[in-house]
Amino acid sequence: MSENTTIRIALTKGRLEKDTVGLFGKMGFDTTELVEKGRRLILNIPGQNIQVVLAKAADVITYVELGACDMGVVGKDTILEHGGQYYEIADLGFGRCRFALATKEGSDFYGGVGVKTVATKYPAVTRHFFESKRMDVDIVKIEGSVELAPLLKIADGIVDIVETGTTLRENGLAVIEDVVPISARLIVNTVSMKLKKERIEELSAAMLSALEQGERGSV
Ligand code: PRP
Fold first, then answer.
1. At residue 19, does pLDDT exceed 50?
2. What is the pLDDT of residue 214?
3. Measured from the CB, is residue 62 less than 6 Å from ligand 1?
């Protein structure tokens, strides 16, 4: 496959975008346009035939599934919640956090009788977690700051992303069980994987190699 083949890659806006742009910098790419993007959402990496699209996490998956983008960088949290048809080809290792079940400090989530209520932004992940335990729970979908739900007494617990644990701690909540670890993943459109295989493999290998070198402290 020639280097003339353009690769369009969608990055999840925010932290994963910053980490990926940093990685592109380590790979020797000219990231000026990405760093000085202003409000632009489609950007180019000069000399690489790579176009970068900035989108919200779930939309990264949609664009990759529909073939509007060949590749995407998105968190495992969104992949688990969203599902879909695409290849997940690499764990990029950054954006590390975890899904966890948390309750008000000192409360006995598994104790007592009656169906418990769990608030979350991630109902599919939550349903799967409790199904695997064969435990019946009521799930309440919340759009953000899920930590409020037990404090306002509409839920016995929450399933949410925990990174440093600060949000839980500062709101009197505590993890009672880890659900699943999360990190950024590289995903690929199924047709692009066939038609642009060589370039996609080259780019992902270069990304993983730069990450590995970074871990060894040489970049
Ligand atoms: C996420 C998550 C927790 C917080 C965890 O929220 O939902 O609230 O980060 O991070 P910590 O363990 O380092 O405190 P986000 O900042 O995405 O906001 P939101 O809940 O309003 O979506």
1. yes
2. 79
3. no
Round the CA-based radius of gyration of the chain to a whole number and report it. 20
- Section 101-109 average pLDDT: 95
- Which one of 12, 78, 162, 178 would you pick to mutate in the ligand 1 pocket, going by the greatest count of ligand atoms within 8 A of its CB? 162
What percent of the chain is predicted at pLDDT more than 70?
96
- Give the pairing of strands 71-75 and 97-104: unpaired
Other Cβ atoms less than 10 A from the Cβ of 169: the count is: 12
Vertex 184: Cα angle to 50 and 11 (nearest 5):
35
- Say whether 97-181 and 7-95+183-218 share the same fold: yes
For the domain covering 7-95+183-218, report its CATH number. 3.40.190.10
Percent of the chain with pLDDT over 90: 94
**Beta bridge mates, 120:** 141, 159
Does ligand 1 lie within 6 Å of residue 148's CB atom?
A: no
Atom of ligand 1 nearest to the CA of 161: 2
